[in-house]
């Protein structure tokens, strides 16, 4: 079966294009000559040549207007992993994604690339060089992960060569980079409050932090290799920097780069996890009486104290993936101390922007030209 020809094979839509990853994806698609439309609940920037459409993910008619004559859709919309609203996660990640699929099928879209998450297989215990054949988590660590599992299942099951509708899921992990709204800003806020003095566990646990350019590169590679005769159809792919780093080494590099002391004191993992579990249980029992949203949760302790890094071997084999940014952590950031801005001598957005560039600035090969371009996406 041959793929239907659209007026332009490079006419695409990015659902969630106003977000951190979505915006980077839009910018790279434009550089590669794609015609791009953005669909999101809010418009946060303007780019010449990009048609922005504001609407609700569950509004199929609004989606159909955007998807007219579009052959490729990237779906990277999701509430923040830090959100604690299960109903919102379910509405966006599950019900909204079902609506996206229906709209794509009615609009005769050929390809759907989903931003999933490596966390769909993580249950708070060690994962070392995990592959895509790991089972979905039976005990997801949070609402985000619970609904991302269902979302990925729905998208991959919708893949149909007979109906000329192909799907693939990209599973990034620990995305960081310029304009990062979560990882580095949350770390800075925690350091300001004096809460980054302790290392959970022995500090040797390896994790994947993935530079945003590599995640974007993986999405575009998947889209360009997704064909009826390709192995990508209906499959998920881990996309990382392919260089796991000690979690606490990464934290220390960011903190020192921003002028804070690196954590030095060790606390036993089992003790900290037990305390977090007790606090979570107390807040759960008190929830009918008091609306408390704990920030010190078992999930966060697990993310900070366990191994969780993933193999990219399937992506390398099936679509020729290799990171366009390597050695993304090797810069120590010592030149990025607190930078005065507007008369305030404190870490600023521009400082964080510069630091994240520094943490991921070693472009390899021809990655800057031809090669392409939370702990959830």
Question: Brief description of this entry?
Answer:
The chain is α/β, with parallel strands linked by helices. It is built from eleven helices and 17 strands.
How is this structure best described in words?
The chain is of the alpha/beta class and 377 residues long. Helix content is 36%, strand content 16%. The protein has a seven-stranded parallel sheet with strand order 3-2-1-4-5-7-12, sandwiched between helices. The chain has a two-stranded parallel sheet with strand order 6-15. α1 crosses α6, α3 (86-106) packs parallel to α4 and α8 (269-286) packs antiparallel against α9. Mean pLDDT is 84; it is low at 1-7, 330-358 and 360-375.
Compile the SSE list and pairings.
Layout: E1 11-15, H1 20-31, E2 35-40, E3 51-54, H2 60-67, E4 72-75, H3 86-106, E5 111-115, E6 127-130, H4 143-157, E7 166-172, E8 175-176, H5 183-192, E9 198-200, E10 206-207, E11 210-211, H6 212-225, E12 236-239, E13 245-246, H7 247-257, E14 265-267, H8 269-286, H9 298-305, E15 308-310, H10 313-319, E16 340-341, E17 344-345, H11 349-359
Parallel strand pairs: 1-2, 1-4, 2-3, 4-5, 5-7, 6-15, 7-12, 8-11, 9-14
Antiparallel strand pairs: 10-13, 16-17
Helix pairs in contact: 1-6, 2-3, 3-4, 8-9
């Amino acid at each position: 079966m041959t793929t239907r020809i659209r007026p332009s094979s490079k006419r695409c839509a990015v659902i969630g294009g106003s977000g951190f990853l979505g915006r980077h994806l839009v910018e790279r698609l434009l550089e590669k000559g794609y015609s791009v439309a953005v669909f999101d609940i809010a418009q946060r920037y303007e780019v010449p040549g990009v048609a922005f459409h504001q609407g609700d993910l569950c509004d199929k008619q609004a989606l159909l207007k955007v998807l007219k004559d579009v052959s490729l859709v990237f779906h990277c919309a999701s509430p923040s992993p830090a959100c604690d609203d299960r109903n919102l996660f379910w509405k966006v990640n599950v019900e909204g994604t079902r609506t996206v699929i229906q709209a794509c099928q009615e609009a005769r879209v050929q390809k759907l690339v989903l931003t999933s998450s490596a966390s769909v297989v993580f249950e708070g215990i060690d994962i070392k060089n995990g592959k895509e054949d790991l089972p979905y988590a039976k005990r997801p660590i949070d609402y985000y992960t619970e609904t991302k599992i269902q979302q990925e299942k729905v998208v991959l099951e919708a893949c149909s060569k007979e109906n000329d509708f192909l799907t693939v899921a990209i599973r990034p992990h620990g995305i960081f980079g310029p304009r990062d709204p979560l990882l580095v800003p949350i770390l800075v806020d925690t350091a300001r409050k004096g809460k980054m003095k302790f290392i959970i566990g022995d500090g040797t646990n390896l994790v994947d932090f993935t530079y945003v350019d590599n995640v974007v590169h993986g999405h575009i590679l998947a889209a360009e290799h997704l064909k009826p005769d390709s192995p990508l159809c209906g499959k998920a792919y881990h996309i990382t920097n392919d260089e796991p780093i000690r979690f606490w080494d990464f934290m220390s590099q960011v903190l020192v780069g921003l002028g804070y002391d690196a954590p030095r004191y060790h606390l036993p993992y089992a003790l900290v996890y037990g305390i977090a579990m007790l606090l979570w249980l107390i807040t759960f029992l008190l929830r009918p009486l008091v609306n408390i949203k704990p920030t010190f949760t078992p999930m966060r302790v697990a993310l900070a104290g366990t191994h969780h890094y993933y193999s990219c071997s399937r992506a390398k084999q099936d679509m020729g993936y290799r990171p366009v940014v390597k050695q993304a952590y090797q810069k120590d950031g010592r030149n990025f101390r607190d930078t005065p801005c507007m008369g305030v001598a404190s870490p600023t957005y521009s400082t964080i922007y510069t630091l994240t560039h520094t943490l991921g600035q070693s472009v390899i090969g021809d990655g800057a030209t031809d090669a392409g371009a939370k702990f959830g996406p």
